Backbone:
């Protein structure tokens, strides 16, 4: 992954200097063969995916060894497949190839969720069913487009549709693609697979899929707006943008409100993800360049913040067996570094300036004002209060409540987790996780601060030219 | 407001407390004496740094540090203009005394987690200084939010259920206020208006529709209204009294509420401007809300037996003195409002210091328990008496001077009604404070044992601030030319014809 991250950074720098990279797979020229295109946006997202997952993989090595047991080899095989699929989705310039990569990453993700014991089985099965439906919808949509255009290459599709997009089949295609990708990005009400999948997946897996996987779904949605359908088509002809906007606004509030009532930390973070992804959807749905900038910036910010939060949650679970919100009482003292990572992630997520999360909201609010969408302004602002409610709940317990009397350890401590619970029980209670676990988490937390301060550069150099 | 020139001093002033926080953190509980001297030392250096800028600022030259272009077209920039200087000088000089006091108090009370306390304390002062020196709306919001974040551990310091509840309430109110400010700021920038503060306002003359202006008013004034505890946004303040007393002193006299009213100064004078507010007739609305808060706050204060709560309601009332003074939109009232920020800071911190000293020494917190305390803690109660006289606006104390200007300002703009409000509230202040003085010195108590004065580290600061309340009343330009700064602002805002430095006073 380190290599891949380096390659992405190199590509980003290269694209910044020289414009988009293209690569024709197998040497076939674009209309016939499959084209890979790395423009600014793709390089940006690829860099986020690879860098965040590199840090996560470093941090989760110990957990993976425990969770995967003998199957460590196939575990990492699946992880690599997942990431290859995600990066493929980002760089591909071909509609059908995008479907292939969606399926590659999704299949790997289902298998990884299955590793999470009994709960993981059920969650994974649900994920599999819904995910496959989503994939099929997308494929159907691509099929409809193909009727009209006769090509699968994104750039060419764009060209043909720009000339004439009046065909009924194009509209149907847009609708199917919207549903398919909406499911992948967990847009309410297509989010049902997400909470269980994030909760029951092994910690080494959910720290990986939560930050990056749904983001790539969102990215694919952006691709549709930016480089497949003609400009204005999805906002004016087929009301995909409006649907994204409305569902996104509902999702922001819904996710946050449900997150407040969760007792399991990972489940709370899962619902928080739904809320935050909806912010990305709203950004796309505004259909303006500024909205797109907000969405892309939030793709990055949320990946970094959520990775820090999930790693901290995993670290708590591994050190103490605690998975509940109540259980974190007093951990600020016993696991200081883990809680610093969590606190940084949480404060960034709430959007206290100059942390990263603030700026996603800042641009989203500005985009809302610009587009005269006052509902967006109100919901985005309120959402930061709502996330404060569910995140400060944890910080309050960790720093202000006394350490709990010895939490329940041993096999019953975590029954979603079957065979490895006994191993958890052998750990000392509430001691800080090893440095190779917490340092990446803290690094991600600090990155949330650094990216906030550097957002001006990112926005003017990468995102604004990119959209 | 004069010419700006690049200077690192405003940034240094903001960073010094952060440095102190770091030093405190490194020293930890083990080297507590070293740890506890860092704050005081830094505070003294900080006062020196800020005071060093004073001559230039009085000459109309404004030091500015531009830190970074944080988002396209918007800089994080600090600028020590006259208004910022008033707030920063007040905050930093009171921090010197408060940090000495806090050491005495925290040790006497054997408070836990003192390291965290002093770290958050220093960071809060840094954030308050940032609020003072913020050159534009964005920077203001940035430090305003940080102030919320850093004061939260102080409010919840006791870690009791009550403290945690108060903390939640505090966050709910202040974060909501912050959100309003963020919305307003984003909106201003979307209107292509540069958010850099300028005396006389920046919104006027941009052809804004009435709806837009009212929307911005609700967001921006509403946002700072929370921390300035204008009713009905005051609910967080009395509850936050559960914090240790040095925190209450800091919150209520220096950092948080003053950041709120200072925000009012920024919004009313430097963003909206008098002309725009008068045209919209929005100032009347603000003035009415402030006048109600002023009277109701004072009246509620009389009812409360708990000393700190009584002082909290008194704070609510006095903040609205300032807000009302600003909303009167006249030069003299503006001078009065700015002086009242300083005067109330010095006076109220004395009262809180006294409440804390009594509590640390005797564990009494109710007014009804204070019979005869004046004989046992004479210096402390003498300071309380001086501060009470100042609160009631008795000449020649500092709050007499400021109230005099506020009342004169009300008369100047033909709003005699508000002059009456000021007078009534002055009487009410006497009604809720003088009985305490009476109990302390004239009533005899037979039940409680003999107490002496509290720790010197508490007594000296509270005596000093009490004396300061007197000195500032007689010589408002000692030591930091507060009066001259205030009249410079009034001149810059309302034109040179309105110079008040020569008349009266």
Residues:
């Amino acid at each position: 992954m380190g290599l891949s991250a380096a390659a992405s950074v190199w590509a980003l720098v290269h694209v910044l200097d020289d414009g988009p990279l293209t690569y024709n797979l197998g040497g076939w020229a674009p209309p016939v063969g499959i084209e890979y295109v790395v423009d600014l946006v793709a390089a940006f997202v690829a860099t986020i995916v690879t860098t965040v997952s590199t840090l996560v993989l470093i941090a989760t090595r110990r957990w993976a060894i425990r969770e995967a047991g003998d199957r460590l080899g196939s575990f990492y095989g699946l992880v690599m497949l997942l990431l290859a699929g995600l990066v493929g989705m980002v760089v591909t310039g071909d509609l059908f190839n995008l479907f292939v990569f969606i399926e590659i990453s999704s299949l790997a993700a289902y298998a990884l969720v299955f590793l999470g014991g009994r709960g993981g089985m059920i969650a994974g099965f649900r994920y599999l069913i819904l995910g496959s439906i989503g994939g099929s919808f997308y494929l159907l949509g691509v099929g409809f487009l193909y009727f009209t255009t006769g090509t699968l290459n994104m750039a060419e599709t764009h060209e043909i549709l720009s000339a004439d997009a009046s065909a009924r089949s194009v509209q149907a295609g847009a609708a199917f693609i919207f549903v398919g990708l909406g499911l992948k990005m967990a847009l309410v009400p297509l989010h049902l697979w997400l909470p269980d999948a994030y909760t029951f997946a092994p910690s080494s897996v959910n720290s990986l899929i939560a930050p990056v996987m749904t983001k790539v779904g969102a990215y694919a949605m952006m691709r549709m707006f930016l480089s497949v359908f003609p400009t204005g088509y999805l906002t004016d002809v087929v009301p995909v943008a409006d649907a994204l906007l409305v569902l996104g606004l509902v999702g922001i509030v819904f996710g946050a409100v449900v997150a407040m009532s969760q007792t399991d930390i990972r489940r709370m973070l899962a619902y928080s993800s739904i809320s935050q992804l909806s912010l990305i959807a709203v950004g796309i749905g505004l259909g303006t360049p500024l909205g797109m900038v907000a969405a892309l910036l939030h793709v990055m910010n949320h990946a970094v913040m959520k990775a820090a939060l999930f790693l901290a949650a995993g670290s708590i679970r591994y050190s103490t067996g605690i998975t509940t919100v109540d259980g974190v009482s007093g951990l600020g003292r016993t696991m200081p570094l883990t809680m610093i990572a969590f606190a940084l992630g949480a404060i960034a997520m709430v959007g206290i300036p100059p942390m990263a999360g603030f700026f996603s909201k800042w641009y989203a609010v500005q985009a809302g004002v610009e587009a005269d969408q006052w509902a967006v302004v109100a919901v985005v602002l309120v959402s930061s209060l709502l996330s404060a409610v569910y995140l400060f709940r944890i910080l309050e317990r960790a720093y202000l409540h006394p350490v709990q009397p010895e939490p329940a350890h041993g096999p019953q401590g975590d029954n979603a987790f079957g065979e490895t619970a006994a191993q958890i029980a052998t750990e000392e209670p509430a001691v800080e996780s090893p440095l190779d676990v917490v340092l990446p988490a803290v690094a991600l937390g600090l990155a949330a601060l650094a990216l906030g301060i550097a957002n001006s550069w990112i926005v003017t150099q990468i995102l604004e030219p990119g959209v | 407001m004069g010419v700006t020139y690049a200077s690192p001093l405003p940034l240094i002033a903001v960073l010094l407390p952060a440095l102190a926080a770091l030093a405190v953190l490194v020293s930890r509980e083990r080297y507590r004496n070293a740890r506890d001297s860092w704050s005081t030392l830094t505070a003294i250096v900080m006062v020196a740094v800020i005071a060093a800028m004073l001559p230039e600022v009085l000459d109309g030259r404004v030091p500015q540090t531009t830190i970074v272009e944080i988002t396209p077209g918007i800089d994080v920039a600090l600028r020590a203009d006259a208004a910022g200087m008033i707030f920063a000088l007040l905050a930093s000089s009171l921090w010197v005394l408060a940090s000495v006091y806090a050491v005495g108090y925290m040790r006497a009370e054997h408070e836990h987690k003192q390291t965290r306390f002093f770290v958050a304390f220093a960071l809060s002062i840094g954030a308050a200084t940032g609020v003072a020196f913020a050159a534009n709306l964005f920077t203001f919001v940035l430090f305003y939010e940080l102030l919320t974040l850093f004061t939260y551990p102080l409010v919840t310091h006791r870690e009791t259920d009550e403290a945690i509840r108060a903390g939640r309430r505090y966050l709910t109110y202040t974060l909501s206020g912050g959100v309003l400010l963020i919305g307003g700021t984003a909106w201003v920038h979307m209107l292509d208006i540069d958010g850099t503060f300028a005396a006389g306002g920046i919104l006027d003359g941009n052809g804004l529709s009435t709806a837009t202006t009212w929307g911005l008013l609700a967001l921006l004034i509403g946002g700072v209204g929370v921390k300035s505890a204008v009713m009905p946004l005051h609910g967080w303040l009395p509850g936050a009294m559960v914090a240790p007393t040095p925190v209450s002193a800091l919150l209520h006299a220096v950092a948080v509420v003053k950041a709120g009213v200072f925000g009012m100064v920024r919004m009313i004078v430097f963003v909206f401007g008098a002309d725009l507010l008068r045209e919209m007739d929005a100032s009347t609305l603000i003035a009415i809300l402030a006048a109600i808060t002023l009277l109701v706050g004072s009246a509620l204060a009389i009812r409360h037996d708990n000393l700190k709560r009584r002082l909290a309601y008194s704070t609510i009332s006095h903040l609205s003195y300032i807000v009302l003074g600003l909303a009167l939109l006249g030069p003299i009232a503006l001078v009065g409002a700015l002086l009242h920020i300083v005067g109330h800071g010095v006076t109220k911190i004395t009262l809180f210091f006294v409440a804390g000293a009594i509590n640390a020494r005797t564990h009494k917190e109710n007014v009804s328990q204070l019979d005869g305390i004046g004989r046992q803690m004479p210096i402390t109660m003498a300071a309380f008496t001086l501060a009470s006289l100042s609160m009631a606006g008795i000449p020649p104390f500092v709050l007499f001077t400021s109230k005099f200007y506020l009342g004169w300002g009300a008369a100047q703009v033909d709003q005699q009604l508000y002059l009456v409000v000021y007078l009534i509230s002055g009487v009410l202040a006497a009604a809720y404070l003088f009985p305490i003085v009476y109990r302390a010195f004239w009533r005899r108590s037979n039940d409680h044992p003999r107490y002496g004065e509290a720790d010197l580290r508490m007594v000296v600061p509270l005596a000093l601030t009490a004396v300061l309340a007197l000195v500032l009343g007689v010589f408002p330009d000692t030591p930091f030319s507060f009066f001259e700064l205030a009249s410079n602002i009034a001149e810059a805002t309302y034109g040179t014809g309105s110079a008040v430095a020569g008349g009266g006073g």
